[in-house]
Write a structure and sequence with these properties.
With about 240 residues, the chain is α/β, with parallel strands linked by helices. The chain has helices at about 30-40, 60-75, 95-110, 150-155, 165-170, 195-205, 210-220, 225-244; strands spanning about 1-5, 20-25, 50-55, 80-85, 90, 115, 120-125, 135-140, 145-150, 175-180, 185. About 40% of the residues lie in helices and about 20% in strands.
Length: about 240
């Protein structure tokens, strides 16, 4: 376990979170070095506790699952009500203190939430009364999210069943929300998960998860407009074909 020292204002919106963890493999000191820079850039240098884990000997997905459960156990033992969990390939972009403050206000005044993502991929989203918060139909990515204690206890009660962690969250999907616009992304570094090497290669060919996540968010916020444009273009093409 490592904890980074620094200075930040107690009035910062980050102060809302009872515990803030960052998962890191013991062999990836390089990632911890980069993560510290990222945390420092958003005023989190003094709050993040690095949870150092060893690579699972046989199953990377089980290792990922156990790492997230380890953070939740630590938080519950510390009597935390809200736990913010990062992975060490975190990258912040278009970070806004106002958006963060709006998200914290939502979390503090709304009881009906289980997970809150500062960045993820979704299969759909819809607006809430808070302009900086979307309700999302979660698809994947667990590099930056908040879990409420009661839901952490639910997750800890589910034994490992050979299901990747984000797939498990997807099957339980209920009251999941996300920051809008999202400001937490995964870096373009190669994944440590052997199972995802092919997917990871494809993602990097597409410009990396940062670009993919932004495109995913944009598409779901503008899906109707995209549909209308496609219909218009098809009708225009049919009109041209029938005329000539």
């Amino acid at each position: 376990m490592e904890k980074e020292a620094g200075a930040s204002s107690p009035a910062s919106p980050w102060a809302f979170f009872d515990k803030i963890y960052c998962i890191s493999l013991d062999e990836r000191a390089d990632r911890r070095h980069e993560a510290r820079k990222q945390f420092g850039s958003v005023g989190l240098a003094d709050r993040v506790e690095f949870v150092i884990v060893t690579k699972h000997p046989t199953d990377n997905e089980q290792g990922i699952h156990e790492s997230h459960m380890k953070c939740m156990r630590k938080g519950i033992r510390s009597d935390a009500r809200t736990m913010l969990i990062f992975e060490d390939d975190i990258v912040f972009d278009r970070f806004s203190v106002k958006v963060l403050a709006d998200c914290v206000h939502f979390l503090a005044t709304t009881s009906a939430w289980q997970l809150f993502f500062f960045g993820c991929l979704s299969s759909g989203s819809k607006r809430t009364e808070n302009n900086s918060v979307l309700k999302v139909h979660y698809r994947c990515l667990t590099h930056a999210y908040v879990v409420q204690r009661s839901f952490a206890e639910t997750l800890l009660g589910i034994p490992w069943r050979n299901t990747p962690y984000d797939a498990l969250l997807r099957t339980l999907s209920g009251d999941y929300y996300a920051a809008y616009p999202s400001f937490a992304f995964q870096s373009n570094a190669r994944t440590d998960n052997i199972r995802n090497r092919k997917v990871d290669r494809f993602r990097r060919l597409c410009g990396g998860l940062l670009r993919i996540q932004k495109m995913n968010e944009w598409y779901h916020r503008n899906r109707l407009a995209v549909f209308v444009i496609h219909v218009f273009l098809i009708m225009l093409l049919l009109l041209l074909v029938t005329r000539f």
